[in-house]
Specification:
This protein has 201 residues and is of the alpha/beta class. It has helices at 51-64, 75-81, 83-97, 131-154, 160-163, 169-178; strands spanning 12-18, 27-33, 67-73, 104-108, 120-123.
């Protein structure tokens, strides 16, 4: 059972990102403020849900949340500032757009770059612990999936409608055969010949 909040008496926004480990495409993040009494038995970490469940929950979250927003950082920006900073920036951009200002941030992971003067708490595997982070994970994931499906129509060789830009054998084989696109992250290990740098945060 996911927890409704960490601090009951403050306006709390959950934040999560999607697409950090991908070879192509932007990184997306979402920030969600849920009502304190919000309940939904289906709501869980987006990775534990089917695609259909995620899109059903997106409708519920957008309708019932006190406020929600999605932030995006482009592949060019990722290459310029690195994926760790890009993930933080995507969360900051989501928080920037919230129609209600939060008083505390719940961040999925173990690292975060402070946003203005707001206090924050990082929670490892937070999308499986707090409703607001789970809600943010669903919005980030579904909006990024929509974006990758659109890019797939432009560049169908890379199987992005299925792998969403992650480093599958088929994706890497297509890079070898067809080269890169403007959406590939050029600072990433695109062909997989060296151990992939991984960030745990």
């Amino acid at each position: 059972m996911l927890l409704p909040y960490l601090n009951k008496d403050v306006i709390e926004a959950g934040c999560d990102e999607a697409g950090r480990g991908c070879l192509a495409g932007a990184v997306y993040a979402a920030a969600v403020i849920l009502p304190p009494d919000f309940q939904n038995e289906m709501l869980n970490d987006s990775k534990q849900l089917t695609e259909r469940q995620r899109y059903l929950l997106r409708e519920v979250i957008e309708k019932e949340a006190v406020a929600w927003a999605v932030g995006v950082v482009t592949p060019e920006e990722i290459d310029r500032i690195n994926i760790l900073n890009a993930s933080f920036l995507a969360m900051h951009r989501a928080i920037d757009q919230l129609q209600v200002r939060p008083e505390h941030l719940l961040i999925d992971g173990n690292r975060f770059k402070k946003y203005q003067d707001l206090p924050h708490t990082t929670v490892v595997k937070g999308d499986g612990k707090y409703l607001s982070i789970a809600a943010a994970s669903i919005l980030a994931k579904t909006y990024r999936d929509d974006y990758m499906n659109k890019l797939h129509q432009e560049f169908p060789f890379y199987d992005w409608d299925k792998n969403k830009g992650y480093p599958t054998p088929k994706h890497r084989a297509a890079i070898r055969e067809h080269g890169t696109t403007p959406y590939h992250r050029m600072t990433f290990n695109l062909l997989g010949e060296d151990p992939q740098l991984s960030f745990d945060f």
